[in-house]
Write a structure and sequence with these properties.
This protein has helices at 2-17, 30-33, 49-56, 72-77, 96-100, 108-112, 120-134, 173-187, 194-197, 257-274, and strands spanning 22-28, 60-66, 89-93, 139-143, 151-152, 160-161, 190-192, 209-212, 219-222. It is 34% helix and 14% strand. It has one domain: SGNH hydrolase (Rossmann fold). The longest helix is centred in the C-terminal third of the chain and has 18 residues, at 257-274. A 5-stranded parallel beta sheet has the order 2-1-3-4-7. A two-stranded antiparallel sheet has the order 5-6. A two-stranded antiparallel sheet has the order 8-9. A hairpin with a 6-residue loop joins strand 8 and strand 9. By secondary structure, it is of the alpha/beta class.
Length: 286
């Protein structure tokens, strides 16, 4: 009996000494959401950026707080209903839907003065405040939206949106990326600049867009920027991004395997640079 008791005590001590996984909450839109819903990519993606990072760092456990189609403003308005928990690391990848939705960007004063979810800047403040309340010592990464092309949903071509080369409500997508950079600098958070530094550009998000030549009516593969202004008719035309058109995105907006790897590599680089993750926790042969 005494021997069993000693063994039980030793076992409990071993459990208490075992390293606990580092928990990472990833807040985002469909780009994050799709990590765990690969079927919604038409199986064009085999692994999202969250999975790619945690495959490299087995000691990290991610919580996917990606919400399909949501904006920064939408996340902020529902922040108390998202069941966010205290974790070690938080990342925020939002903004592209704010731009497409024509939501007012606002200014840094909206962030500093906590003016509320009427602007993207104000909404970001609500999200950051929530993170700080959950864990004042949390490590935080802000990620800018990435450049995009004309989006056409692979499962329903009626769901489409033009590229960031046009303004929406007088605003450019680049302005939303600049806002994220400004907030990260103000808060001394880590920044991942997908818009300017990932190598993902309007020229390579897709290799081409397959459209009907307006003169001949024959399908042609148009590269950027030649496809700008050429009409696409979702009810009758072929899907404009066949598999061989996939670049850093598979549909003009959402990252392909190649795009997800870029995002994962940039996140991993932050982990390495900051020392947040112990070097010996990296999976070998990665």
């Amino acid at each position: 009996m005494k021997f069993r008791l000693i063994c039980l005590v030793l076992f409990c001590q071993l459990l208490s000494c075992a390293p606990h996984p580092i928990e990472w909450t990833a807040i985002g839109d469909s780009i994050t959401y799709l990590n765990d819903h690969l079927d919604e990519t038409g199986n064009r993606v085999t692994s999202g950026y969250l999975t790619r990072v945690t495959n490299q760092y087995p000691g990290i456990k991610y919580i996917n707080q990606g919400h399909n189609g949501w904006t920064t403003v939408g996340i902020a308005k529902e922040i108390e209903n998202l069941e966010l928990t205290k974790t070690d690391i938080y990342s925020v990848l939002l903004g592209t839907n704010d731009w497409w939705g024509g939501l007012p960007l606002g200014s840094m004063s909206d962030y500093i003065n906590s003016t509320g979810p009427g602007t993207t800047y104000g909404a970001y403040r609500i999200i950051v405040n929530k993170i700080k309340n959950l864990n004042p010592n949390a490590r935080v990464i802000l990620i800018t939206p990435m450049q995009r092309s004309d989006f056409v949903y692979v499962a329903d071509a009626q769901n489409n949106a033009y590229d960031g080369y046009k303004s929406k409500n007088g605003q450019r997508l680049s302005q939303f990326a600049d806002a994220v950079k400004e907030i990260a600098n103000y808060e001394h958070f880590e920044l991942i600049d997908l818009y300017y530094k990932s190598g993902i550009t309007e020229e390579n998000v897709v290799k081409f867009k397959r459209l009907k030549d307006p003169v001949s009516g024959e399908y042609r593969n148009y590269t950027y920027p030649d496809y700008i202004g050429i009409p696409f008719h979702p009810g009758t035309d072929e899907y404009p991004y066949p598999v061989d058109a996939i670049g850093y995105t598979y549909d003009g907006l959402h990252p392909s395997d190649q795009g997800n790897q870029v995002i994962a590599d940039m996140i991993s680089a932050v982990f390495k640079k900051t020392g947040w993750i112990a070097a010996d926790s990296v999976k070998k042969n990665q």
